[in-house]
Amino acid sequence: MVLHAINLGLLTLLFFIVGMIKPGWALFFMQKPSRWLVTVITTVFFMIVMTMYGEGMRQHKLKKKHTKQTSAATVAPIPVPVPEVAPVPVPTDKPKAAPPKK
């Protein structure tokens, strides 16, 4: 959510700069756009961006705290038996002699 807040903040800044230079470019759908309206819209978007950023940071801290608590609970090692090494039979080069036929 923090990344979305930063992206929206950059778009808001771009909207504000363009709207202050040429209000008609930022508010192209209006008959008579004004700089005052650009300022009002920018203020509303700024409040939205700050709220999104704050909530994103809060969620990030909660997630970090939650993962820290769960990792502390799994630190104690569980005893596991160590398997013994068993010899592996190796085939010989010479085959066994077949019993004679009668």
SSE layout and pairing:
Blueprint: H1 2-21, H2 23-26, H3 35-73
Helix pairs in contact: 1-3
Could you give a short description of this structure?
The protein is mainly alpha-helical. It has 3 helices and no strands. It has helices spanning 2-21, 23-26, 35-73.
Describe the structure.
The protein has a domain at 2-70. Helix content is 62%, strand content 0%. It is built from 3 helices and no strands. It has helices at 2-21, 23-26, 35-73. Helix 1 (2-21) runs antiparallel to helix 3 (35-73). The radius of gyration is 36 Å and the shape is elongated. The model has no long low-confidence stretch (mean pLDDT 86).
**Class from helix and strand fractions:** mainly alpha
Q: What would you call the shape?
A: elongated
Please indicate the percent range of residues in DSSP E strands (runs of 2 or more).
under 5%
Percent in helix = 55-70%
Q: How many angstroms separate the termini?
A: 87 Å
The main sheet comes to: none
Q: What is the N-to-C succession of helices and strands?
A: HHH
Q: Tell me, rounded to a whole number, the average pLDDT.
A: 86
Overall radius of gyration:
36 Å
Q: What is the count of DSSP helices, taking H or I runs of 4+ residues? A: 3
Q: Regions with pLDDT < 50 over 5+ consecutive residues?
A: none
How many strand units? 0
From the structure above, extract its key features.
102 residues, mainly alpha, 3 helices
